[in-house]
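Researcher: I'm preparing a figure for a lab meeting and need a structural model of a single chain. I don't have an experimental structure, so a prediction will have to do for now. The sequence is pasted below. Please return the structure as tokens so I can convert it later.
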Amino acid sequence: MNQEHFDKLERMYLSANVNTELFDTTTAHITKGKAEISLTVEPKYFHALNAMHGSVYFKLLDDAAFFAVNSVVEDAFVLTKSFEIHFKRPVTEGKILATGELISSEGEVFIAKSELLNEAGKVVGYGQGEFVKSKVALSPEIGYV
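Model: Understood. Here is the structure written out token by token.
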């Protein structure tokens, strides 16, 4: 694994429409078998009780685990096969950080876990998922530049 691969993954992730249009304060840092995704909490992410919607938890947890896996896969885009999430506490402000880590790879299936931390460093959610290689090559056409 090399830094160029990690840099290309970061650029691909940050240039995706969902991040440039909706989650525009997202940052990413990817290393071998690990990924960190952060986001500044804004009211546009809140549900009716004025706390961050669970879909944002899922996005960040899945993204961190996903890129922990894709960091060790240099030829293809990875897909989420399944992902289980657990909520621990609400988030209403600050910057949140999702950390992902590759746990194992068995044949074609990769397993990764992730945690979502609030600005005080408390775990607000966590998850684990299974990921598989797709048939889509990592290429400039999908932002891997």
